[in-house]
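Hey, quick one: can you model this chain's 3D structure?
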Amino acid sequence: MKIALIGFGEAGQMFAEGLRARADIYAYDINITDAMQKAATTLGVTLSSSQEAVLVDAELILSLVTADQSSIAAQSAAPFISAGQPYLEMNSVAPKTKQLNAELIPSLIDVAIMAPVHPKRMSVPLLVAHPNSNEITDLLKVLGFNAKSVGADVGHAAAIKMCRSIMIKGMEALTIECLSTARYFGVESDVLASLHSSFPEMGWDRDRADYWFGRVALHGQRRAAEMREVAKTVADAGVPSEMSLEVSKTQAIYAGNISYLKGE
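Sure thing. Here's the predicted structure for all 264 residues.
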């Protein structure tokens, strides 16, 4: 079985590792780095700058790019995809974005990745929405994925993902703003103790804050792009989206900033 990956970043590489015993993996990336090439060699992945070569005869296509590249990736791939090639739109984008991409690629399946791929890898929960979602879900399970069908409508899985992100990415942004301010005033330990007292199950007395700071520092730009898609989702529902837009800005501001983790 030939499986094609569009995008060979963190998620693509981790899925390739889990799939390589079950399929021949081909990957396309618009910007192939030395690190990608090294990973491809280690994993036995055929990494190419020719999208057509990667997609031809692929029995399954996984789109794994950043949210702001999802539509561009679909537009670029569409000429090389036939009706019989399932295109798994796995990117963190609004339901309407997936629906518009499906107009370009009729074989598109809405798949939402519901947690960070690292460290869960192949066990990360996937939600699948498509008229043939049960069949696609069964295939994904055979390949080793943790997949669940959530209905027939493309965009349904995306809606679940986007609404969840309002809460999760919002809590990340609030934590960053709260504890950065607390550290400036020298009351960080007091604030964390108070948060632990109110929400003991969240791990404020352990590594909760450091984990969220670390995720934003490493992936803030990607998360900011996702939150812009979240804001589109909110606006499409007729709900004011200012909060999601501000969360996007906070994620972008702190991307690459690990001063909190260093104790500076």
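One thing worth noting: The longest strand covers residues 108-113.
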